[in-house]
Predict the 3D structure of the following.
Amino acid sequence: MPELFSGLPASPRRLSSLRAKRLLLVVLTGLAGMGAPAHASPELVSALNAVRTLGCASHAGTATPFKSSPQLDQAARALSMGLKLPDALLSQDYRATRTNTIWLSGPQGTRAVTDMAAANYCAVLTEPALKEIGIWQQGPQTWIVAAAPFAPVVAAQADDVADQVLRLVNAARAQARTCGTKDFAPAASLKLNATLTAVSQGHAADMARHSYFAHQARDGSSPAERATRGGYRWRNVGENIAAGQTTPEAAVEGWIKSPPHCANLMGAQYTEMGIAFTVNKASDAGIYWVQMFATPR
């Protein structure tokens, strides 16, 4: 499950750091050009995908092959020049939700490199969550970066996402469950409310714009105050927030697993719901979710 982040908005210092790392990569690239030939290998990608499909050691194969990524090729190249993985990905403006790396020294040629990777890194090669791969080879050394790219839902899907969250939430409410130490009986289905969704959207956008994660907004407002300000006359009101989850399924799953969020979701006192998300690739978490529950007066 993605972590929940709180932090400061992107600053000039952070942007300067990114420029510096990209400049360092340019300088290192120039120096690397003076040494032995280096390259990314399409043939090796194909060979590793064959291992990924068939499986290796005690790991079953994975049906979906790695997709070759030029950005990850360059990130692997940056690793070969001494950058740490977070800086190597940052230098290529590549955001990932999951990563792993492989470094091999000694074998040369597609067959030898593939055999060593399969023998020592089978779990990485067959991990279904990793979708893309980048490779850089220089002399007897090979650097491989495997990643799951940050690929969140998009604003154009907002209505479909809201419907899916509502279905998932109502399915959860239809069953008795325990949230932490508290037992909840099945609860009646919720319905979507446009005003609550608009209020949720405002808070999600603010968190994404300013890279923070909190129920209290930067202006000091609480969920109840934002609902009132948005024109919703409420008798009961509650809020769930999440950050980093790229799908509605992941967001709802996270809320169900968290006792206080689960308690909100199962609350029989609520009859309506609003749900919204905002994506900002430059923010700390990348995507922010807000779910509001309420009962009107």
Notes: Residues 12-32 form the longest helix (21 residues). The radius of gyration is 23 Å. Residues 42-149 form a domain with the Pathogenesis-related Protein p14a fold (CATH 3.40.33.10). Residues 1-20, 26-37 have pLDDT under 50 and may be disordered.
